[in-house]
Amino acid sequence: MKPALPALTGEFRDGWRILLGAALAAGTGVGMVFLNFSMFILPLSQELGVSRGDLGSVQALIVTAALGAPVMGRAADLFGVRRVFVFCTLVVACVHLLAATYASSLLHMAMSIAATGFFGIGSTAVVLTRPINAHFREHRGKALGLMAVGIALVSMTSPPLIQWLIDNHGWRAGFVGFAAASVGVGIPAVLLLIPRGGRAGSGIGAAPSGEDGGRDSSFLKERDFWLLTMSTITMSLATAGTVSQLAPMVIDEGIDAKTAALALSFFAGGQFAGRLVGGWLLDLFEPRRVAFFLTLMPAIGFVILLSTHGVVAAALLAAAIIGLQQGAELDIFAYFVGRRFDAARYGTIYGALAGLGWIGNVGGMLGMGRIYDAFGSYAPAQVMGIVALVVAAVLVLLVRLPDLPQARPA
């Protein structure tokens, strides 16, 4: 008799298709639009005759994702990942094509962005981490990390292509490119690589008839859901504003704009490392302790910025540290929801968590700029961010996690 294969081989041997499909789908979904939208600001402002500030305000309508997250998460529980992803992707692709064909005013772009936020959340981790959590048990953290790395790799290749379309064919061609990528890559990846269902009770497909599945809202009465929710809100209060103001924050340290742009690259590098390393650490060590220390990482970056001025190396290090936590954030909350709650309700619970988390995102983005306007410095916001991160880290440490089931021999 041949010796049993290690659990790592077994899980990835059967699950690599799910992992690849989810990474390709998420990388070519609405996340690609969020990443590249800043390239459309100048051509849109010139053609529509509006200011950059006007477009920035319209961009904020992406907050409709907060409303869409619980809806699409629940739909994934009720109807399965494949149906929800394909439906949302087709709707968003139609929105892109309509914008490319007919958009001629700021109102048209506002309607486009609002619809993209609400339906586009169905092509993100809210839906696509469901089959990852369903299939992977012992190596769940590694799988979530690899999926996030796959998203990052796809995202790294898209900006030059979108910029080429804009330079040669105009901004409308860029929106056609978004639609083509999601329909031509994302939908085939999901339909060909992610199965309709998994082993009994896996949660890959729709909830079996007769089960509450996505309709069960009893999780709203559980302390661990609210611990995770308050953790992500307080964490986002500290980090979302920092990400939106990172370049001027670095310039405010007495560093030139060119170096500030380099700081963004260091942030992206830290984010990439966090996505890969965070998942592995969750599997190797006690997950709550890992989450505790990763959540505190941006606080270290804030301390560096508060205690130095004009030191380029310190500013770059701070940006990389903040990026590290941002990269690991997806791993942490997807892992905790998948392990703490049953698979049949994963989309509903993770969607609700992500939707409520937008309270922190919006508060952070608005608050960081307001505090700077009031005090002429980012220092007060950074001190408040350190406090918020300590609270977020303590909250996640209090979450109760069940023991992992014993791996079955292959």
Give an overview of the whole structure:
With 410 residues, this protein is mostly helical. The protein folds into 2 domains: 7-200, MFS general substrate transporter like domains (Growth Hormone, Chain: A, Up-down Bundle), CATH 1.20.1250.20; 218-397, Growth Hormone, Chain: A, CATH 1.20.1250. 77% of the residues lie in helices and 0% in strands. The chain is built from 17 helices and no strands. It has helices at residues 7-27, 30-36, 41-48, 52-59, 65-79, 81-102, 106-120, 125-135, 140-169, 171-193, 223-244, 246-251, 257-284, 287-307, 312-340, 346-375, 379-397. It starts with 6 loop residues before the first helix and ends in a 13-residue tail after the last helix.
Pick out its properties.
410 residues, mainly alpha, Growth Hormone, Chain: A, 2 domains, 17 helices, 77% helix, 0% strand, disordered N terminus
Structural class: mainly alpha
Number of separate structural domains: 2
Q: Specify the helix fraction band.
A: over 70%
| Weakly predicted, low-confidence segments | 1-7, 199-203, 209-214
Count of extended strands: 0
Brief sketch in words of this structure:
By secondary structure, the protein is mostly helical. The chain has 17 helices and no strands.
